[in-house]
């Protein structure tokens, strides 16, 4: 029973997981904010949030959704994940947290909350699945980031 719930949660959120991780691998190029600053004279998002990473994340996450037989849901989860990540970056800049610096819990769950919020109009997710996703994502996210760091894919282990 518990393993089935974990499987269902991971299967459902997998497009968002992929969308969130792909910009690390396929990102780069021009920043989404174009290097502009907000009214507080701080960067809007920062140089690590790139157009190529954003589009690649949506494309890969949507492809995963297509493979799962849920194209539109995959698209919404992917878009929501990346918008959630952008919102967290915007907040980090307002709090003077530099691009790439750790922001515990928010770094692990920003994309999940975005994905879940964007998916609600087409797929109401059962509360036990939401709870499971929120519970398993932080340790899974941290583990995959440490592995990516050790492989030289990421600059920081968080």
Search tags:
5 helices, mainly alpha, single chain, 158 residues, globular
Give a verbal description of the structure:
- This protein is mainly α and 158 residues long.
- The chain has one domain (14-125).
- It has helices at residues 2-26, 51-67, 71-94, 106-119, 127-150.
- α3 crosses α4 (106-119).
- 37% of the residues are buried.
- The mean pLDDT is 96.
Provide the fold topology.
Blueprint: H1 2-26, H2 51-67, H3 71-94, H4 106-119, H5 127-150
The helix content is 55-70%
**Number of E-state strands:** 0
Quaternary organisation of the protein chains: single chain
Overall structural domain count: 1
- The structure class reads mainly alpha
Distance between the termini: 31 Å
Query: How much is the average pLDDT?
Result: 96
User: How does the major sheet shape up?
Assistant: none
Taking Cα atoms only, what radius of gyration do you get, to the nearest Å?
15 Å
The outline comes out as globular
Relative strand content: under 5%
Low-pLDDT sequence parts: none
Tally of DSSP helical segments: 5
Could you provide a short overview of the structure?
66% of the residues lie in helices and 0% in strands. The chain is mostly helical.
